[in-house]
Amino acid sequence: MTALPTLAIYAAAALAEIAGCFAIWAWWRLGASAVWLVPGVASLIAFGWLLAQIDSAFAGRAYAAYGGVYIVASVLWMWLAEGERPDHWDLTGGVVCLAGAALILFAPRGV
Description:
mainly alpha; UPF0060
């Protein structure tokens, strides 16, 4: 498994998931039109498809490693899309989560 394509897939999946969830958030919490649900659902379908492209023998391992990427992507979304700058704890937590994701996904395992 190579790190670059895997990271690119995870990044695309995170963007799709966050965009889909935000569309629902915008409709439900911010009073946006229900039309927001259409691209939201499409984004969530894309998220599921992208995550299924990860080269891993076990779905649970692929999902667990994705969790770290999702956390960092969510902090970036908060900053770039919502205008709330991450604090020291957001950044520290993101680094810890990415380290954990890397351990899960790229650790050498005996056959």
